[in-house]
Design brief:
Chain lengths: 561, 385
């Protein structure tokens, strides 16, 4: 990007670099105002004021210690399960040749982007008391009471987290497998390596960075988990995030701040490791897509059985909870009747009606997506800057929203932005800001990946043909970036529309979104209303990803991870 | 997103018709500004008189909260020429205090309804309220003021008796004779403990009342360590987040027979059944051959530095008028603090304050405020798996 600078006069150069710096700095300044400053305000205020517990009290409290241990324990267990269950799938996805593969690949990401509260509904419907499996077992044993319930306590939490994060392993590892040049494996074969040697010496080292990256991401998401904990934790198995929420609600600001600090420390460490791995794996070349694929019938019978069993298990675990949301939308377990009340609620206006929540959801998420993309472009540029400090700084800023408690962010936005400006009376702009922050890591990352693939020569050509910076941006860069922007936008949209905790904290009743109303309805056992709203969110997410797949032609799925 | 459709079209490899992305961006920007402006105008905040309360406020009657609130507060709106905006926050009273704390540097609410005699002992609650002695206090018995808050941060609004309830459709005094003479020791037996639903004392006032009842009985009547009881039942009792959640579990889950709720529930049940004998009964605790329960008094308070303090005071006075107070029994299922008002006939099935000994008398407010955080921490530690 700097190649043309020699040919321009000193004054223009200065002005250009200044504008450039301003553009790069713009999103970072916004993040400082709307993310760092609010969170700092909350943390400092909480630690300095003498309301509530001190840091030392928090650290030494047995229930907090248990919470921290539990947060680690469940995240670790979930990650192990995600890797073990996901790895075979990644191989199948990379090696097996079948029809509609790109569609399957596109749909594979859906569990990852589903709002957590929707996953809760699906899980209850599939694995919970009086759910699909339970109903079947009750019928078998002709029992009128529930006999099977996996959607509660630790099993519920771990299973839901596995469901959520398996796509990470499937997509990241299979993409890395596809980049493995088949000639290397063939040479190993020729040189007489056994298949286990080949795996250990060639395949494993090749996929290791992507495997580690997906494991760290999975661990991070499980570590920050909140709605699933709220629904399945029975108030006893609490992550740090859930404890922060409880502390704020019980106005123990000292506790909330201390926990936020502990959490940031742990997650940022993880996030930085992830960035480093990302750099490494980014270096081993572009997509080759020359991977040797095999058709199903070419496998041996035993292998085929294994594949079928594996896919069957994946269907129960992944597809099951999504499909059974259909049942949740029409079946009222309170009286055992089928009903369309859930859908008629979605057509009801007024401050308690589902229609208002739907409109709010689409409006906030739409705006948040737009901002996430507009801010994501300069952030991605900053990440690719040649300076030494700027890329690291920008990457950290982008990862911050993943590692900071969204509840603390929401609380900080209220305290530092909404209250002084009087926006609390009508806090929807604050909700949009919170949702933008949550989607930004995904949009910026997708755009950054797309930027990597732009041929620098094309840009230089535009410059030498005398294009202005704006012309170059509009006619060359943006069109080339379009698929990346689309992917990033869809991810940001999915994250924003599924966001629950921050929105819940900021919103007045007239600002509730579908995700919030699902939680409220679920907690008060208005199951069909919750189910119907969950179904709508699933449909919105699936459509968004199918559209993305159609337009970007399958080249970029998972590009925001 | 719209911008990319024409560009990444399949004929990209040939010479595409070059469209100016600048135009598309302008169009998008224009549409976005239009939509945002429309949304902002529709939801624009008009200054009005704001009351914060919890979501189920006056919402348990046949008519629903909208009609009842209109009937109760329309005369006030007419008299003072204001719009009263009662914001039903989807949270418990703690959450309301938490919100008031955040907003304390620039409050938008003038009045808050629903903070009770335990929550007001918290410093955070006192910090966001302004004491006010209403001239209408002469309409009510002074004992309510003393039970709720002698410092007048709150003015009594309604009260209720927190006790255990059960449905006679699932258990009764024949199947479980101990229900007629219940002690915590009876309740600790697995058969009853696993049938009990209560609420989290951190977030729910009846849940906290139940915890304090248990502490009062163990520390002041039995003179035993209160934690032993919770230790013995921790794996059996179902602790739900709030009263609404607990009520849903109790009324839908066939294995849950007992719930920590209010002494007016039999009256509610009778009203639900059209005035017939109720199928919900109360089971107060019996010690020294006397029934015991916890009294909860809910109050209305003036928000400190609220935008309309004069109107706020007038509103608090107004809350003690018969117009508001008579809506309480059948819509809030609490007793109005105006004891001079006649109660509906179904209230013959409720337990009345004069029929019961109050456990509050055993734990005075000084003891509670000094120990509450410690007790809750201990309770957390007991429940930690």
């Amino acid at each position: 990007m700097g190649c043309i600078e020699d040919s321009i006069g000193g004054y223009r150069l200065e002005r250009r670099t200044f504008t450039r710096k301003l553009v790069l700095a713009f999103p970072i300044i916004l993040l400082l105002i709307f993310l760092v400053y609010p969170v700092l305000t909350v943390v400092v205020k909480g630690l300095l004021s003498d309301s509530g517990s001190s840091f030392a009290e928090v650290i030494s409290s047995p229930s907090i210690q248990f919470g921290i241990q539990f947060t680690f324990f469940q995240a670790l267990l979930s990650t192990l399960l995600v890797v073990t269950l996901g790895l075979p799938g990644a191989f199948i996805l990379a090696r097996l040749r079948f029809k509609g593969k790109s569609l399957v690949r596109a749909l594979m990401i859906v569990p990852f982007v589903l709002p957590p509260i929707v996953v809760v509904i699906g899980f209850n419907q599939m694995f919970g008391a009086y759910g699909v499996i339970d109903s079947f077992l009750m019928w078998l044993q002709s029992s009128s009471l529930s006999v099977f319930n996996l959607a509660t306590g630790i099993p519920g939490i771990i299973l839901a987290h596995t469901f959520y994060n398996i796509p990470l392993v499937l997509l990241l590892v299979s993409a890395s497998l596809e980049r493995l040049n088949p000639e290397i494996e063939e040479s190993a074969d020729l040189l007489g390596a056994t298949s286990s040697q080949r795996f250990r010496r060639i395949t494993l080292p090749h996929i290791l960075p992507s495997l580690l990256a997906s494991a760290i991401l999975a661990f991070l998401f499980c570590f920050m988990s909140f709605p699933i904990i709220l629904a399945f934790g029975q108030g006893r198995f609490l992550t740090i995030e859930a404890q922060i929420w409880n502390a704020f609600r019980f106005f123990d600001y000292g506790k909330a701040s201390s926990l936020t600090l502990i959490q940031i420390f742990i997650t940022l460490t993880l996030a930085l490791v992830y960035v480093r791995l990302g750099r490494k794996s980014g270096n081993n070349g572009g997509a080759t897509a020359s991977i040797k694929t095999i058709e199903f019938r070419q496998y041996r019978v035993r292998e085929r059985m294994l594949i079928i069993a594996y896919v069957g298990m994946l269907m129960v675990l992944i597809i099951g909870p999504i499909v059974t949301i259909l049942r949740a939308a029409v079946y009222n377990p309170n009286n055992g009747l089928l009903t369309l009340d859930g859908f008629s609620n979605l057509l009801t206006g007024g401050s308690h009606g589902g229609l208002t929540h739907l409109v709010n959801s689409l409006f906030y998420a739409g705006l948040a997506t737009l901002f996430a993309v507009v801010l994501g472009i300069p952030l991605a540029l900053a990440m690719r800057s040649r300076s030494k400090i700027i890329p690291t700084f920008a990457s950290t800023m982008i990862l911050l929203p993943l590692g900071v408690s969204s509840i603390s962010v929401a609380y900080g936005l209220m305290l530092a932005i909404a209250v002084p400006t009087g926006l609390v009376t009508n806090p929807w702009p604050i909700i949009v800001i919170a949702q933008t922050i949550i989607g930004l890591p995904f949009s910026a990352r997708a755009i950054e990946i797309a930027m990597r693939n732009i041929d620098q020569a094309v840009l230089d050509q535009a410059d030498s043909l005398g294009a202005s910076r704006l012309q170059r941006l509009l006619f060359v860069e943006l069109p080339l970036l379009a698929p990346g922007i689309l992917v990033g936008g869809v991810f940001a949209f999915a994250m924003a529309i599924g966001e629950m905790s921050a929105t819940y904290l900021i919103a007045l009743p007239q600002n509730y979104t579908l995700a919030v109303s699902i939680y409220n309805n679920y907690a008060t056992r208005h199951f069909v209303e919750a189910g119907a709203a969950a179904l709508i969110l699933v449909i919105i997410c699936v459509i968004a990803f199918l559209v993305m797949e159609r337009i970007s032609e399958g080249s970029t799925t998972g590009g925001a991870l | 997103m719209l911008a990319c459709t024409p560009i990444s079209d399949k004929n990209m490899a040939e010479y595409p018709v070059r469209r100016d992305p600048g135009k598309i961006i302008t169009v998008i920007a224009f549409v976005v500004i239009l939509v945002v402006a429309a949304y902002a105008i529709v939801t624009w905040w008009k200054p009005r008189f704001v009351v914060y309360t919890y979501s189920s406020f006056l919402d348990w009657g046949d008519e629903g909260a909208d009609i009842v609130l209109e009937r109760a507060f329309a005369p006030f709106e007419a008299q003072y020429g204001v719009d009263v905006d009662i914001i039903l926050l989807d949270s418990d009273a703690n959450g309301i205090i938490s919100k008031l704390v955040v907003e304390s540097s620039n409050p938008i609410a003038d009045v808050v309804i629903g903070i009770d005699n335990i929550l007001i002992l918290q410093e955070a609650a006192r910090n966001v309220l302004e004491p006010y002695v209403s001239p209408n206090l002469n309409l009510i018995n002074e004992s309510f003021v003393n039970a709720l808050d002698p410092d007048h941060y709150l003015t009594p609004f309604d009260f209720g008796i927190v006790t255990l309830i059960y449905s006679t459709n699932s258990i009764n005094t024949t199947t479980h004779p101990q229900l007629g003479n219940l002690t915590f020791a009876d309740l600790a037996e697995t058969s009853l403990a696993s049938a009990l639903v209560t609420e989290n004392p951190h977030f729910s006032s009846p849940g906290l009342a139940f915890l304090l009842s248990q502490i009062a009985v163990y520390e002041e009547i039995l003179h035993e360590d209160w934690t032993s009881w919770w230790d013995s039942v921790k794996n059996d009792i179902d602790v739900q987040e709030g009263w609404t959640e607990a009520w849903s579990v109790w009324s839908n889950d066939p294995t849950k027979h007992l719930m920590v709720s209010y002494g007016t529930d039999p009256a509610y049940s009778s009203s639900w059944l059209g005035g017939a004998e109720p199928d919900t009964y109360v089971a107060p605790f019996y010690y020294n051959d006397e029934p015991w329960a916890w009294m909860q008094v809910e109050g209305v308070g003036l928000v400190k530095n609220g935008p309309n303090p004069e109107l706020g005071r007038a509103f608090i006075d107004y809350c003690l008028n018969a117009t508001v107070q008579m809506e309480i029994p059948l819509n809030q299922w609490m007793f109005p603090v105006r004891t001079d008002l006649a109660l509906p006939s179904v209230y013959q099935y409720a337990i009345h304050p004069d029929e019961i000994n109050m456990l509050n008398d055993l734990l005075n407010s000084t003891v509670i405020s000094a120990n509450l955080t410690i007790w809750l921490d201990q309770w957390d530690a007991l429940r930690t798996p």
